[in-house]
Design goal:
The protein is of the alpha+beta class. The chain has six helices and twelve strands. The chain folds into two domains: 92 residues, Roll (Urate Oxidase); 152 residues, Urate Oxidase. It is elongated.
Length: 271
């Protein structure tokens, strides 16, 4: 649906169908646009800026007495930020969406790839690793919250397989996903560091033979179930008093099964 903004053509007013009343008396929790791509600018821990493309999903709550929302206004809001959106402007866009659509609640998700340069553990050869990051914001009359979600790919090696096997053990690539709400600023890299340190082994974009030997043996010496990974990451997050809420998920893409292993921990700090 398009927002007509009471435009006039040939002297006749165009009807605002979206703004017409609805009699079904049912509120819609989220309505809006999904998967719009827009340039974003992300500052990393080293003070450098990454220029990347984010997928935006933007929603508002629609009261029970309105037939529809004005979809074009979501696009207008992003277009006002002509070039690149930053983490700082993300929060202002969240409130701007609520105000411009005259909504009780607004909800925005901004998903983008985040890159780190990593040195291989033995040879030191450098390459880029990418991580999927999502900012999730919600604004209402009473609250304005932002959640950061980071998907960190790692290696996991099965403790049981190691214990019962005469040779080797099955291992696989795993995704550990951490979603965090915090009282104070937290770098994306801080979350990545915690996950990689608590996995059987971290991943690298480029490895030479000495590096491959190192990461294979490192994983073998550090076997972990999905249960171990979520508990170890959760323990680290519990120690960080900046964090008021988190969800830690681990999914192993099992190398000897046609299914994944999965675990999750959710935490709310009371103090």
């Amino acid at each position: 649906m398009l927002d007509t903004h009471e435009a006039q053509t040939t002297g006749a007013e165009i009807a605002d169908v979206q703004g017409s009343p609805d009699t079904r008396n049912i509120t819609i929790d989220k309505v809006g646009v999904k998967d719009m791509r827009h340039p974003v600018r992300i500052q990393d821990r080293n003070g450098l800026e990454q220029h990347t493309i984010a997928n935006f999903s933007m929603y508002v709550e629609l009261p029970h007495n309105f037939k529809g929302t004005h979809m074009s206004r979501f696009v207008e809001i992003l277009s006002r930020h002509e070039r690149e959106i930053s983490v700082h402007s993300f929060r202002s866009i969240l409130q701007e969406t609520r105000d411009h659509l005259d909504a009780g609640t607004s909800h925005i998700e901004m998903a983008f790839p985040f890159f780190l340069e990593k040195a291989a553990p033995v040879t030191g050869v450098k390459s880029l690793m990418d991580y999927q990051v999502t900012f999730i914001g919600e604004a209402s009359e009473d609250t304005n919250s932002t959640e950061v979600r980071v998907v960190v790919p790692v290696t996991s090696l099965c403790p049981c397989s190691k214990q019962i096997s005469d040779y080797g053990a099955h291992n696989q690539r795993s995704h550990v996903t951490v979603s965090v709400r915090s009282r104070n600023f937290i770098w994306i890299e801080e979350i990545i560091d915690i996950v990689e340190q608590e996995a059987s082994c971290e991943l690298y974009g480029l490895l030479k033979r000495p590096d491959e030997k190192f990461v294979t043996e490192r994983a073998y010496e550090n076997p972990k179930f999905v249960e171990d990974m979520v508990r170890d990451v959760a323990s680290r997050l519990n120690d960080d008093k900046r964090i008021e809420y988190y969800v830690v998920e681990a999914e192993n893409f099992e190398s000897i099964h046609n299914h994944s292993a999965y675990a999750q921990i959710t935490f709310h700090r009371d103090d």
